[in-house]
Each structure stands twice: as C-alpha cells, then as structure tokens.
Amino acid sequence: MKHFILGSLSGLVAGGLYGLIKTPRSGKENQQALKNYADETSENLQDVSDKVSDLKDSINQLKAEVSFVQNDVMDEMTLIAKEFQHEAEPRLRRIQEKTEKIQAAVQETTDSVNY
C-alpha cells in the first residue's frame, strides 16, 4: 500500500512538472501553477496521512472492544459450563450407581451360570 501511494504521488509530481514545462504560459504563471500544484499535493498528502492515522486508531479501538467482548464471552461460557457440571453431577452419580448395579448383576449371573 505504501509503495502504491508513493508511486502515485511520484507520478502526479512527474506529470505535473511535465505539464508545466510544456505549457505556453509565462514563467510567473508557471511558478504560480507549480506553487498551487505543490500546495494541493501537500494538502492531499496530509489528508491521506490523517486518514491512515484515523484508521490505525479505529483498528486499535476495535481490538480493545473485541478483547473486552472476548473476556465477557469467556467468563459467561465458564459460568455456563460450571452450572451445567453442577446440574449434571447428580445425574452422572445416578448413572454411575446404576452402571455399578448392572455390572454386579451381570457378575452374579455369570457366576451362577458357571457353577
């Protein structure tokens, strides 16, 4: 991007100088036109610089907001996970107890079949 802007500005300057050299105007008129052109180019360059600075500020602000939102989302997700774990714990305990009972019953059945 920097090279494009630099190339564009160089092209503008070169084109402006060529146009000034080839014009049928007097030296004073050419000097005034060159001064006006230089002033315009300087203003345009300042505008571009200001816009780049504004863009950098906007990017930094966006990064800060994303970081803030990300932290809020992570906190909320952690809370939801803890609540789910707390709510699921009794169910998991009951499932574990029933699984142990089934395993014991299977073992008893296997033992009684073997004897």
What report would you give on this structure?
With about 120 residues, the chain is mainly alpha-helical. Helices cover about 95% and strands about 0% of the residues. This is Gas vesicle protein. Keywords: Coiled coil.
Highlighted features:
115 residues; Gas vesicle protein; rod-shaped; YtxH; mainly alpha; coiled coil
Q: What's the β-strand tally?
A: 0
Counted by DSSP, the helix tally is: 2
* Main sheet properties: none
**What's the helix-strand series?**
HH
User: What is the overall shape?
Assistant: rod-shaped
Task: Give me the secondary-structure category.
Answer: mainly alpha
On the 0 to 100 scale, the average pLDDT is 84
Distance between the termini: 86 Å
Helix content: over 70%
Radius of gyration: 38 Å
Number of domains: 1
Low-confidence stretches: none
Percentage beta strand: under 5%
Write the layout of secondary structure elements.
Blueprint: H1 2-22, H2 27-114
Helix pairs in contact: 1-2
Coiled coil: 38-72
Protein name: Gas vesicle protein
InterPro entries: YtxH
Short précis:
Keywords: Coiled coil. The chain has 115 residues and is an all-alpha fold.
